[in-house]
Automatic annotation (TrEMBL):
This protein's name: Bifunctional chorismate mutase/prephenate dehydratase
Annotated source species: Parathalassolituus penaei
Residues the UniProt record annotates as site (Essential for prephenate dehydratase activity): 263
Keyword field: Amino-acid biosynthesis, Aromatic amino acid biosynthesis, Coiled coil, Cytoplasm, Isomerase, Lyase, Multifunctional enzyme, Phenylalanine biosynthesis
Classification via Pfam families: ACT, CM_2, PDT
Reaction(s) catalysed by this chain's protein: prephenate + H(+) = 3-phenylpyruvate + CO2 + H2O; chorismate = prephenate
Primary role: Catalyzes the Claisen rearrangement of chorismate to prephenate and the decarboxylation/dehydration of prephenate to phenylpyruvate.
Amino acid sequence: MSEAQELEQLRNSIDSIDRQIQELINQRARCAQQVAEVKQKYAQPGEVVVFYRPEREAQVLRNVMARNEGPLTNEGMARLFREIMSQCLALEEPLNVAFLGPEGTFTQQAAVKHFGHAVHCHSQVSIADVFREVESGAANFGVVPIENSTEGVVTHTLDSFFDSGLRICGEVSLRIHHHLMVKDKDATVERIFSHAQSLGQCRRWLDKHYPNVERVAVSSNAEAARRASLEPGAAAIAGEVAADLYEMHILNTNIEDRPDNTTRFLIIGKLETLPSGDDKTSIMVSSRNQPGALYQVLEPFHKAGVSLTRIETRPARTGTWNYAFFIDFEGHAADAVIAPVLQGLQDQVADYKLLGSYPKAVL
Ligand SMILES: O=C(O)C(=O)C[C@]1(C(=O)O)C=C[C@@H](O)C=C1
């Protein structure tokens, strides 16, 4: 057989497989439509029907990864199913998602990673605006950054929970790669724009390669790319999406000081997420200002064998030198081991708020 004949044969096979995949995907989509009808049928009068089920989505993606035999990677296969489910959900209910913008930020990338491409993403100017959009019902969900592995916690996001009744419905983990970009690759770089956190994440690289160039902190990486696209002699540190959006030329790729630089984002909404089998819970407690206060808060977790994943301390809004603890731990608030721990805690501390139980990030 000639090369052309062999290729034709294989491409015929691919065409036939594609036809079957397409038919199956549509069969799946019809099932999702029926799921929507059942949800509506059993809703109480006046009840808001919940179509998006994060715990079910996490289970579907985990199942895909567990049974995958390759040659596609587990993550690659899960990403394909992420998109299929995103399209299926859009048939049930098109979701509106507010994210910390502008267009081209890592937060937008996180929103797409979590929900897939079939949701409507709306850019917001500030973290407070993302909370407001979701609280008012203009958006079904919001996406905000919460912590970076190099630079630490995003205090704005944590503090927003003091006054908000919104729940955490999910988390997204995104590997962050920063690139140095310019409009004109022959111009001398006189100024570098980026978000303060990103300048921090690339500090050592900048000290080595651009020690005497002015660093200017702006509101986001995408804004940095936008400014650098307009000002001669300016460069930006931002991600690939922003580089594409503003048609920038990338001078240096992956300039972050730590190769494992990762940012975690939260999905916020009004939804109470059911247990998925592999969950995390976030709470906020503020204890009376007395010796051993934090110990008393943490001891019940230790006794119950619950694994804590993060603790942040923030000044509480009540009284000087009072503190609020933001605690993340493994498990769901409804789990038999966790529920009594949380009940005991509520009786003991001055202030307690369950911020949410949600599936651990799958992708
Ligand atoms: O299982 C459901 O509740 C569905 O609505 C179906 C489905 C899916 O496509 O698998 C779609 C949307 C939900 O977020 C979860 C899963």
